Records
---
Amino acid sequence: MRHTWRQVAFVAAVAMALAGALGGVALAAKPLPPIVMLSDTGDVVRTMNQAIQEMVRKNLGLEIQIEYMDFKTRLERMRNSNFSVVFAGWGPDYDDPMTFLDLWVTDSAFNDGKWSNQRYDELLAAAKNTTDQEKRMQYFVEAEKILAQEAPIAPVYWRSRLSLYKPWVKGIIRRPVGAEAEYKWAYTQGRPGGDSPMYLNLNLGEEPPDLDPATSTDTVSFLILNATLDGLVRKDAQGQIRPGSGLAESWTVSPDQKVYTFKLRKATWDDGTPITADDFVYQWRRVIDPRTASQYQFMMELAGIANGSKIAKMDAKDGEAIDKALETFGVKALDERTLQVTLEKPNPLFLELTTFISFLPAPKHLVEKYGDKYAAEASTIGASGPFRIAEWKHQYELVLEKNPKYWDAKNVKLQKIHFDMITDAGTALQMYEQGKLDIAGVASRYVDVYRNHPDLQPPWPDGSTFYWEFNTLDPVLKNAKVRRAIALAIDRKAFADRVLRNGSYPATSLTPPVITDPAKGGIFQKRVGELFPATPDVKLARQLLREGLTELGYEVPEVARQ
Amino acid sequence: MVRYIARRIALGVLTLWVIATLTFVLMHAIPGDPFASEKLTPQIHQLMLVKYGMDRPLIQQYFTYLGNLVRGDLGYSMRQMNRTVNDMIREGFPVSAHLGLQAIAVGVTFGLVLGVIAAVNHNRWPDYVVILLALLFVSIPGFVVGALMQYVFGVRLGWLPVARWEGFVYTIMPTLALGLSMMAGQARFMRSSMLEVLDQDYVRTAESKGLSRREVLWRHTIRNAILPIVTIMGPLVAGVVTGSFIIESMFGIPGLGKYYVQSIYNRDYPLIMGTTMFYAVLLVAMMLLVDLAYTLVDPRIRLGKASD
């Protein structure tokens, strides 16, 4: 078919007119697409999400739809960035702001919202490349400020927990980083029926899933591992790291800060076998070895042990190459009681990291003997710490007894710790009332019942921050002003006081006020100040929302127009 | 008879294969996997999949699984890394079975007795009392009964331990929490079954023959009325002896019931499959037993051919 130029011109004119008309339509504001929030199905979580949904609705006129699903489904959706908003939380792995701030660098595996900021990445990289603690802290403060400005996340609360302690329970140290409770110095005083022999009846809550320190990942297992194993150092009652506080009686650091040489004390496992430097080498190699698939492999990389990152990235199916590479891993036994660790670059965090569970040595002779069955039963596990596992009935009870072979046994007063594994929080409280437990946690739904109980302890901040995480690939939430608007519209104080009611604090920045400031002493959060307001700044929030939505070409909700 | 049992066993094996396959498919159809956790990086996640052979095609995993199943090897739990599912069932089942059988003993015995009492006193006050009790315990869930008992008999009166599993006294509350609703169900079932039988001509015949009330009830009524009850006993027993998640969690009992729910929540594939198959085997076996029991209760029923 042949067209004359007139026909062509006519068609072109019609097409242009149509395009113009459509363009005109496009200039009018588009209706807002739905903002979908993922939520777990628990009662408490539901209430929390609905509370914030209501705050955002009231202050901004934004409708957030909540989609309920179980925990594993939510995780999968998060990892695939298949969400608009999700309520998530993070607990610290080590005592440094990095444990929180490192989450949001561009290539972080945990950055599900896919936020990316060049300056932020540079700051975190700079912090990793300097040993000057004051400088590191300044970088972190600036990073926190970028987070507040760009709001890829909106911190909501710093969690605290409530528990009841019988009056005779003394000397348990609770820590927001690492194992939640330290029992080494615990004792009882004034127990009805007498304090001898000294014991505690506690609730573990569930069966510890994995008591092999190389692969363990959960808080319940950490509690038991910390009680039964000593590392190079054990933080003392004041939270300090000192030579001689653990299995290392002393250490020297090379002038270039890259080589640590630890002298181990004379000590044995609970079966009498000497603890050697080789136990450490064997266990640390297991953690970095891709075949072990240890979730905390990254801690070894973070410590910066020579060749660690290289080994971590090797193909798990190439066992021979891995075995060869492990020989170059920067941890060596110079003799039975001398351990030498070589780092790729100086790392001010290194000693702090060695207190972490993944760095605790398990007895090589038992791990080799039992293989997959190591730590499966009380009879296939070793101890080098204050306590050893005396009895373990799965899903039912675990009994720790004082480890007679412990190097510091004279300072361990408890003869026994009996752990029940009661999953039901209500049952645990009834057992506490009946005198069968010495400590019981008070879950949020029981807070009102126990508010005035004489045994109620002051709220204990557990170090975790809970935040709303925004997906920056979302058509609406890709705009930083919209994200910041939502972050400003949340009434953190009302949320903590009226929804949680358990002594949790409004989170005014990401890093919680339990992480220390190694340069100035005290708490890092003090340097940061209030970056997210405790009470909503409605005026500014609405203004930012108007600007953001206008930039995107969306309708501004009625409420936010004034 | 022998041929009948052989046929039933073959059918049972086929049923089990269908259940295993369906469970496998459904389990892998839900999102998430056993290793997904908040602090897991994709690299390590991949390594774990490799370590547990989950990087292979599903069909291959399926056949590997079936092969192990036939050998009776249920594999390692993926949540409690160092324990085998066989061990978990071996330790948990006796506890759940103990509690379950005790609850059945209490529930069924009292249920049947109450049902008979109600039917015999039809539309008189004992009947109303039983109906009321049955209604009450059918409506109130076991965990509410349990929590109330824990508070009243445990905390307030101090008569019974609130939780744990140490000896007979520890079993009283969970047994009642589990058995009372069963009792209520059995009582209602037995009552209506009895009323139906009492209406039959042969009962009237027996009475007119001058048999005593007791003989009529015992020889002609209860025996016939109990027949439908036997039918539901199979699934009931299988269901109860494998444990109740809520009751076991509430009373801190180290049974099998906890594993069912937790395994699904944790996507602990080997444990989901292990517990499901274990339950399925029990159920199939119970059904067969019920059919055999039928012949004992009802002489009219003959399984297979008379010549067997």
---
Amino acid sequence: MTTVDTSAPATPAADSDGPARTGDRAPRRELGVVNVFSHGFLLLWGLLTTLPLVWVVISSFKSDGEILSDPWGLPAALRFENWARAWTEARIGQYFLNSGIVVTGSLTLTMLFGATAAYVFARYEFRFRQVFYYLFVGGMMFPVFLALVPLFFVVRNAGLFNTWTGLSLVYAAYSLPFTVFFLTAFFRTLPSSVAEAALIDGCGHFRLFFRVMLPMARPGLISVAIFNFLSQWNQFILPQVLMQGDESKWVLAQGLSALAVSQGYQGDFSGLFAGLTLAMLPVLAVYIVFQRQIQSGLTAGQLK
Amino acid sequence: MRHGKYPLIITFLVPPLLLYGIFVLSPYLQAFQISTTDWLGYSPSANYVGLENFGTLLRDGALWNAVRNNLVLLVMLPIVTIGLGLFFATMLNMGGRRGVAGVVGVRGSSVYRLVYFFPQVLSVVIIALLWKEVYHPNNGLLNATLRGLGLGAPTWLGDPRTAFWAVVAVMVWSNVGFYVVLFGAAMQAIPRDIYEAVMLDGASRFTTLVKVTIPLLWDTVQVAWIYLAIAALDGFILIQQMTDGGPNHSSDVIGLRMYNTAFGSETKFGYASAIGVVMFFLTLSVAVMALRAARRDRIEYS
């Protein structure tokens, strides 16, 4: 139990119990003050983080009148029709599906190519290995803006402009630097004795990878997959440049941005709040269930 | 046992290399070349103009204004975010100091971590739109609160004096949780007996933090700094969605300048690429400087 010391403040001189007591007391008093102080700040930041989110969810049930007249108030009724309107008329449902299609493709490619390249870099000696490795990893440092203009033409000339395939390929390509960097470090940590034993037993190099190394690398693969999933799902600038045409093909981030513009003109605030809530709640749900994996997946790469 | 490794190396390395070469390396290389032309987008003609774009760039007031905002971000964002991150991480991981070897977190620290980290998994577009509504002059959460307290209600994003800072606050808001968890993980890796020894020597909590924890975390702080510095040179999505650089260019950043130059009303691709090249060298030098300034002997616990 922590108890705040409320007894009369004993000066060190007045304390007759000797140094052992005072040594025990000083930190405890400090603890009481500091805890009130620190809990206050922790709570304050917790409120700052949650309030805007909770407010958006509550507002998504309100009528436009309620939003305009009383931003802090609760809705008189739960108007799920706002959600229905955002899902169908503002096509949030469609955009969800599109994002899902694009990210499924790009994540598969990212993980396959990232794992194979990293494995080769980590476990095999060959000519120009260092050059290729730094070529890949260097991509982490470049600002994506520099590539935007030529990328637009590369994708268009390949006939992939305004297509999900094009977007998936580009997402995967831009995820490779970090993925290769992370997984190369990870494959290096795996014991080479297992690999050698398998080779001596007559296991081929391909079988060795798929049957032995890949299963052993699972924790690393999961971390980097979570990282890539979130960054690809939340991608905004690449679709903005490469998916300029047909609205029905847009991904979620683009759709939300367009929704904000159009609802702003129409004054349909409840529709906008409902759209934001719909985009936010699934992420929130997944995050709460897998919070440990997500937190360690996102921070692991930064600690290497 | 090395027999037959080349088929594997080739099948495993060539496809990723091709994908990366086509969509990442070649655009970056082309960008340098485009930056030396006067290419106006969709027209087929592009004349070589040497370094003319870079000369224009030096006299471009709007660009310098954007660069200045990025530099302010470069200083403010890491300092505030790392400061808050360290503060909260310390509270959460060693705030509840009690007993002899008790270097433990305060009560409910796992709940705090859960809540703080959440903005990190949200898309930046969602964060931008959410905060745009919070800042809304009439029906926003912030002004409703201020009015409730009997205070004034500024037009946060519509006022050149506040727009940029309002966006900076959102950047800090969305980033702090990540660094709390990052620093927290690093703090957990510090051996307990170091703290036991320090406590036996009678060091106060503050001394422990400054003399023991932070030096031992230095590697992580360095990573955080580089990461935030690179983020500070970007800032594109939040700015574009919340203010579009306005009002009156007060919240403009280089990324947005470049985007609008390339894909705005005029498609000045040559000039936009020149801005991109400047951004490339800025990012590179910031990363190199950060690495140099923060270099220390790596500490390993064995």
